[in-house]
Amino acid sequence: MKKKVISVLLAGLMAMSLAGCGSSATTTSSAAAASSAAPAAAASTTAAAVSTAAAAAASTTAASTAAAASATGETEKVKTADGKTVTVGFSQVGAESDWRTANTASMKSTFSTKNGYNLIFDDAQQKQENQITAIRNFIQQEVDYIVLAPVTETGWDTVLKEAKDAGIPVIIVDRMVNVSDDSLYTAWVGSNFELEGQKATEWLNSFCTAKKIKATDIHIADMQGTIGASAQIGRTNGLNAAVKKYGWNMVAQETGEFTQAKGQEVMESWLKQYKNINVVYCENDNEAFGAYDAITAAGKKVGSDIANGDIMIMSFDSTNAGLTDVTKGVITLDTECNPLHGPRVQKIIDTLKSGGTPDKKAYVDEEMFAVDNTVPSVKVDGKDYTVTVVTKDVIAKRAY
Which residue did the predictor score with more confidence, 398 or 302? Predict the structure, then answer.
């Protein structure tokens, strides 16, 4: 990794500080690093704060962190080949959903000071320009690894080339990036979003068959996620293919932006425009929460008995709150999207540190959860996927 002259000076300052201090309170390396110790909702930093505070705090951080670890017996720092603590810069898309909060928590707990890492966290607040600025700040700070959870798939070529030219590996998590040269990123880990959509729609088809509901009686509205995000693209594609295959009536498609507030707004609008919606395909749990609020406020009933007037809500993510709603019959099917990427990213970094080559793409195994056992399993491309009936015990065993 390319290093500048300042790195040598910082190393000298670290050595002198360690020799003169027996212990010291740990300080943060930048405004962004300070935010990584705060809850996800308060973690947002500005690019200006990151770049301004970084230079002033860098030498103090290195010395005080190492000294504090020595005095308290903390876990030894994870070192690079030249003996430096591994610094990870993480650009998170935002905090728009329960899923995203769990994803942030997984990354922070994995790359914590206790575990020997220095994590610089940046909340982009759903804006790609903020993520690009954060990545450039990470490059200036000479982090060892950059982790990016991109807001959309496109528009990354230039900044990722800058990271590559600086010799910094970039690991993509959750959503994918669509770049002209795959060598611009080192590895990706996340979900097969189109497969999630295929599993969910196969479940709906099997449910209709079991309940003797005609395909022409399915009037489905697709509450899409953030347009251009991998999760939106994959889940929408899965539904579009099933609508064409089975002959369902697609009533409407509109983005709920993966948020509860927008989900409620969109559902309220649909209920005024369309009188025949009986299935709402929400592309994440928070949209489902908003859709439920709108449906019940309109005096309509949410449930799985769509043959007798219920409006069925299908969702994705399978967060604790989402699965709790499944037990209440609010969400009929919740297809999992696992947010616990921290340990997976750490495994990739360990592989790189040891001189190995990680898999370019790694898909996460995920489950399906339903309100009852009407459909015990589904088959997609010849593979069976079990559908788990949600109980309190199932929720209690979940990590998120």
Answer: 302
Say if 345 falls within a structural domain: no
Please state, in angstroms and as integers, the Cα–Cα distance from residue 33 to each residue in 49, 73, 113, 160, following that order: 10, 22, 11, 21
Q: CB of 302 within 8 A of CB of 325?
A: no
The average pLDDT across 282-289 equals 98
Q: How many CB atoms lie within 10 A of CB 391?
A: 12
- CATH number reported for the structural domain that contains residue 86 in this entry: 3.40.50.2300
Q: Which of 189, 138, 181, 140 is nearest to 161 (CA)?
A: 181
Residue 32, pLDDT above cutoff 50:
no
Domain with 154, as residue range(s), is 5-185
The SS3 assignment for 77 reads coil
The two structure tokens encoding residue 341: 């990427």
DSSP string, 123-163: E-TT-HHHHHHHHHHHHHTT-SEEEE--SSSSS-HHHHHHH
Closest CA to 274 of 298, 246, 243, 238: 298
pTM of the model: 0.76
How far apart are the C-alpha atoms of 327 and 166, rounded to whole Å? Answer: 50
Structural domain includes residue 347: no
Number of domains in the chain: 2
Find all residues with CB under 8 Å of 275, minimum gap 6, and list them. none
Q: What are the helix (H) ranges across 28-186? A: 31-35, 47-72, 98-110, 128-140, 157-165
38 located within any domain: yes
Q: Please check whether residues 181 and 198 belong to one and the same domain.
A: no
pLDDT in tens, 200-237: 999 999 999 999 999 999 999 999 999 999 999 999 99
| Beta-strand relationship, 368-370 and 333-336 | antiparallel
- Residues 254 and 371 occupy one common structural domain: yes
- CA 119, 14, 114, 84 dihedral sign is positive
Q: Is the pLDDT of residue 371 over 80?
A: yes
Whether residues 244 and 386 share a domain: the answer is: yes
Residue 82 is predicted with a pLDDT of 56
pLDDT band at 239 (very low <50, low <70, confident <90, very high): very high
Mean pLDDT confidence for 81-85: 68
